[in-house]
Amino acid sequence: MSNETILVVDDEADLLDLIEYNLQKEGYKVLKAENGQEALKIARKSPPDLILLDVMMPKMNGIETIRELKADRELKNKPVVFLTAKGDEKTELEGLDLGADDFLSKPISTAKLLSRIKTVLRRAVSNDDIEIVMNAADLQIDRGRYVVIRGEQEFQLPRKEFELLSFLAARPGKVLDRQTLLNEVWGSNIYVIDRTVDVHIRKIREKLGDHYIETIKGVGYRFKS
Fold first, then answer.
1. Given 3.40.50.2300, 3.40.1280.10, 1.25.40.10, 2.102.10.10, which CATH number is that of 5-128?
2. What is the pTM of this model?
3. What are the start-end ranges of the H helices in the chain?
4. CA-CA to 222 of 20 to 30 Å: which in 14, 80, 174, 212?
């Protein structure tokens, strides 16, 4: 049984109740919201351990909501799992670009929902337990505070960008293929498309510069030693 808190955000009342019932059976505490605006108010008042977020909603949709979450210093590293009926690659890439951890398509399988949530939470907790500062090139990667430091500058990266950079930087000079990076950073039990790694590498380069991570054409990426 678990004691984590999950915020479920969906404009379908019946689905909200169904998800709440199944999560509570597993021991989770459940908070509910019917749109993004309501979700942000609840999350800021009672920060959850994970946010289950529908994409298509009135007032503020899921994409707009995750933008606000990732801009909030207290909520930016909270795992987000998207619920979507659209299932198109464009929506997935946009969500991943903004820091989503996983996607679940409607109609939802209860077994799959619970499995994905457990996996995402387990990875979030295990990564939070590591409090080390790693030096790589001219960067300090502080896992305790989830910041990257270069000189006098501090860079706040979303969780998956930070974890991807950390994994590469811990293996300087080693070429890592996309599947290895997906398995190690996102988990082998989580379905994300191959381009997920490319999207996150691009975001890291936009923030830190393109000279730290090298693309090995047709293979993958490596952190320059």
1. 3.40.50.2300
2. 0.68
3. 13-25, 36-45, 62-71, 89-97, 110-128, 159-169, 178-181, 195-208
4. 80
